[in-house]
Write a structure and sequence with these properties.
Elements: H1 2-8, H2 13-20, H3 23-32, E1 38-42, E2 45-48, E3 53-56, H4 59-62, H5 71-82, H6 95-108, E4 112-118, H7 121-136, E5 140-144, H8 153-157, H9 162-165, E6 175-178, H10 183-190, E7 195-200, H11 215-226, E8 229-232, E9 257-260, E10 272-277, H12 278-284, H13 302-317, H14 320-341, E11 345-351, E12 354-359, H15 367-376, H16 383-391, E13 395-396, E14 398-399, E15 406-409, H17 417-436, H18 439-452
Parallel strand pairs: 3-13, 5-6, 5-7, 7-8
Antiparallel strand pairs: 1-2, 2-3, 4-10, 9-10, 11-12, 12-15, 14-15
Helix pairs in contact: 2-3, 3-18, 5-13, 6-13, 7-12, 10-11, 14-17, 16-17
Length: about 450
């Protein structure tokens, strides 16, 4: 049925999306030249309807760690469908969720002993807030400036970016921001002993901001001292993204709460989970009456569980976590050269295959045009790199900073050495072109500003 339907309506993707889902989004795609019709995908590659191959260095915002349409995950999903598993019992249990929970608990280690499944990352964050407050009988929640944890109202309340939050006030009371990396500011708040949870991304997704040395370990120690739960958001950094199964393992941390999602199901089925200590769980689910104090209809979903088990197996069998660490080191070493090569490149930073490049006003050549572009819209220079990377080099990346010109990548961990070389060389050529700021680019920048309004 699907084959015929897709064939009959072929090519209507953008118009239909504009008419029925979101016309403004389609307008943005058309302005920046991202308005392709996509035909198929495999691993780190996407093909458009004209047969052009694109390198996907965005990875569906980081949900394709094992690559798009991973064969092994697909086989397991088909197997799960063929088995006619019982599905959602609601008042009952099945085996698959327990098996995946067991794997996640074992891999997280430390204090983690329980797993509450959700369907998305933002729901896992909602659970951090709700369960964390109930378990501690405290109401304040701290999170960091520039932090991102999802877009539902609870998660938005702990979001550190005014461009996401300003229009949706008032949000949850008791949620406050502290500067990322500042232990003194954190302690000043925690000292009041009324903070339920401190929620932090180990590496901030927006802009790939790295924690200063000692920060995360110090934050954990302060949380312990003042009775606050330490929550590390691994929705984006989890499952090998930074070169460890979970990023918190780089620093030997033992968080009380660990929300995960994105890549857990290989990108096939919506999934999320809140991994937590037994103490938190037992404080919330503390009686027969409270046995179902939190949950939702679709979680845990059987297909998501099957895909999750397969994804963990692929990460192990293909050594993708180690591969992410190795490729990440090479990527950093090779792109560090760009800082010397181009005045406009201010910094490259990253961990594993979570990487960003930040631009800044050059001292000499190109200074005037850089200023002009940034005056139109702060951070706009990054678009002058993302757009030709896509249209001329067929590499998909994203602008990742607000007001600061930054580009970020989250490629599938299955990229080849050649894919990495192709990215670095294309980036070099594109930055060289953007620094020269030809008239066509400036014209594009002007129309992009118009479309963004
Ligand atoms: N937390 C982090 C660190 C994220 O990057 C995201 C999404 O990008 C979320 C939470 C929210 O996850 P979801 O988009 O599945 O709701």
């Amino acid at each position: 049925m699907l084959r015929e339907l897709l064939e009959a309506r072929k090519g209507e993707d953008l118009d239909l999306w504009a008419r029925t889902i979101n016309p403004q989004f389609v307008r943005v795609l058309r302005t920046i030249g991202f308005d392709r019709t996509w035909a198929r995908a495999e691993g780190p590659y996407l093909w458009d309807a004209d047969g052009n191959r694109f390198l996907d260095f965005l990875g569906g915002f980081g949900m394709y760690n094992v690559g798009r349409n991973n064969r092994r995950v697909r086989e397991v999903l088909v197997e799960a469908l063929d088995l006619d598993t019982p599905g959602m019992l609601a008042m009952g249990t099945t085996l698959l969720p327990g098996l995946l929970a067991e794997q996640l608990i074992q891999r997280a280690g430390g204090r983690i002993e329980r797993c509450q499944f959700t369907s998305t990352g933002t729901e896992a964050i909602e659970a951090v807030i709700k369960l964390g407050r109930t378990a501690t009988k405290r109401t304040r929640v701290l999170s960091c400036d520039h932090g991102f944890h999802g877009l539902t109202l609870g998660s938005l309340s702990v979001n550190g970016n005014p461009e996401f939050t300003a229009r949706f006030q008032p949000l949850l009371p008791g949620c406050e921001l502290v500067p990322f990396g500042d232990l003194d500011a954190l302690e000043e708040q925690l000292r009041r002993e009324d903070v339920a949870v401190f929620l932090v991304e180990p590496v901030q997704g927006k802009g790939v901001n790295m924690p200063p040395p000692g920060y995360l370990e110090g934050a954990q120690a302060l949380c312990r001292r003042y009775g606050t739960l330490f929550a590390v958001d691994e929705v984006q950094t989890g499952f090998g993204r930074t070169g460890r199964m979970f990023a918190f393992q780089h620093w030997g941390l033992e968080p009380d709460l660990v929300p995960v999602a994105k890549s857990l199901s290989g990108g096939y089925v919506p999934v999320g989970a809140l991994l937590m200590s037994r103490a938190v769980h037992e404080a919330v689910f503390d009686s027969l009456q409270n046995a179902v104090a939190h949950g939702s209809t679709f979680a845990p979903n059987e297909l998501a569980m099957a895909a999750g088990l397969a994804t963990l197996e692929v990460l192990d069998d293909e050594r993708l976590v180690e591969r992410s660490a190795e490729l990440g080191e090479r990527l950093l070493a090779e792109t560090l050269l760009l800082v010397d090569e181009f005045e406009v490149v201010r910094e490259v930073r990253g961990m594993g295959l979570m990487w960003a490049i930040e631009f800044g006003e050059p001292e000499n050549a190109g200074r005037r045009s850089y200023r002009m572009i940034e005056r139109m819209q702060p951070g706009l220079f990054a678009q002058l790199v993302v757009v030709p990377l896509f249209s001329d080099h067929r590499i998909l990346t994203q602008v990742a900073g607000h007001k600061v010109a930054t580009i970020k990548i989250l490629p599938p961990l299955v990229i080849s050495d050649g894919d990495l070389d192709e990215f670095v060389e294309s980036l070099r050529q594109t930055v060289a072109g953007a620094s020269r700021m030809p008239r066509a680019l400036t014209k594009f920048a002007l129309s992009a500003v118009g479309a963004g309004r």
